[in-house]
Design a protein that fits this description.
about 80 residues; single chain; 1 helix; mainly beta; five-stranded antiparallel beta sheet
Length: about 80
């Protein structure tokens, strides 16, 4: 997993609990369309759906990429 640089002064970037539509757990960043932010770790864990490839995680973002996409960076899988 790449090292994530945290901007403590940012008002839009933060660690968040989320469900990620991930065919593989080997990626370190995900486009905004693959990420559904939820309120709590419990909500993320409850939303796990292996048939739909939804996995609970803690992510950091959203951040703008050089390609103009908004990305979330994986902090850890739950």
């Amino acid at each position: 997993m790449p090292q994530i640089i945290i901007d403590a002064d940012s008002t839009s970037l933060a660690e968040r609990c989320a469900l990620i539509k991930a065919p593989s757990k080997h990626r370190a960043r995900f486009s905004e369309g693959c990420v559904t932010v939820v309120e709590t770790e419990d909500e993320a864990r409850a939303g796990r759906d292996q048939a739909r490839k939804l996995e609970p995680a803690v992510v950091y973002g959203p951040s703008s990429s050089s390609e103009g996409q908004r990305l979330y960076y994986l902090v850890r899988w739950l």
